[in-house]
Write a structure and sequence with these properties.
By secondary structure, this protein is an all-alpha fold. The chain has a domain of 149 residues. The protein is 71% helix and 0% strand. The chain contains 8 helices and no strands. Helix 2 packs across helix 7. The longest helix has 39 residues.
Length: 242
């Protein structure tokens, strides 16, 4: 899926350079660019350039992970399972960064690091679901069985995760923008400069995540090959132990 566009292994591949340029621009302008002076938010609105792209990237990578889980069930190859797991790991990391940047934002706007807000709790539950996915995948020693169980779990977990963080908070009272009747950031005075920084950050973080994931995939495949060549065959005598 990503291979035709991102197959270049050179460290100077065009999309890697683009990721660096976009993130450099987003970071510099994110801290130094002009922002509207809004009540409560004030300068913390700059977190829009970092917190929201983290969640967008997380959602994309978890979605790609599901696609490769489906691909594995249709074509049970080790590579499909490795790619699915790797994108899930990347999605988890971006989700954790999204929660951390959200907590920082909450501290300066709501006065606390964490509240009983439905969206915050739903996000935490959703990430714990993927922690369970990783534990489940590594709990079974048989690689084929492990990949099959993890793929099925992943396919069911993703729509539940989306419902938890995007749908349910909109149906209840929430402090989070765009939920519980609160206006989203698209209703505020986001000028052309802010939009340019915002979308540059989204694309930059997504490309960075793909870059990280491709490296992790290569590492996982190297480990799989190493295990394949170094693993000693299990005999009846060796299985008895000492």
């Amino acid at each position: 899926m990503f291979q035709p566009l991102f197959r270049h292994s050179s460290p100077f591949a065009w999309w890697k350079l683009l990721s660096f340029v976009l993130l450099l621009y987003a970071c510099v302008m994110g801290f130094l660019g002009n922002v509207p002076r809004l009540a409560i938010l004030n300068e913390t609105i700059r977190n829009l350039y970092f917190h929201v792209p983290m969640w967008f990237s997380m959602t994309l990578f978890l979605f790609v992970s599901v696609l490769y889980s489906i691909a594995y069930l249709r074509n049970p190859s080790l590579r499909n399972d490795t790619i699915s797991y790797s994108f899930a790991v990347s999605g988890m990391w971006f989700g954790i960064l999204g929660i951390l940047t959200g907590m920082l934002w909450a501290k300066f706007t709501w006065g606390t690091w964490w509240t009983k807000d439905p969206k915050l709790n739903a996000a935490a539950i959703g990430l714990l679901m993927y922690v369970a996915y990783m534990i489940l995948r590594n709990a079974v020693e048989d690689l084929d069985k492990s990949a099959r169980i993890a793929s099925i779990y992943n396919i069911f977990a993703f729509p539940i995760f989306i419902a938890l963080i995007y749908i349910m908070p909109r149906l209840t009272d929430s402090l989070h923008p765009g939920n519980g009747g609160n206006p989203g950031f698209n209703t505020y005075d986001r000028d052309r400069e802010m939009n340019l920084i915002f979308y540059s950050s989204i694309i930059g973080f997504m490309l960075l995540g793909v870059w990280m994931t491709t490296l992790y995939i290569r590492l996982q495949e190297w480990k799989n090959k190493k295990d394949l060549y170094t693993k000693e065959p299990v005999t009846h005598e060796s299985s008895l132990g000492n």
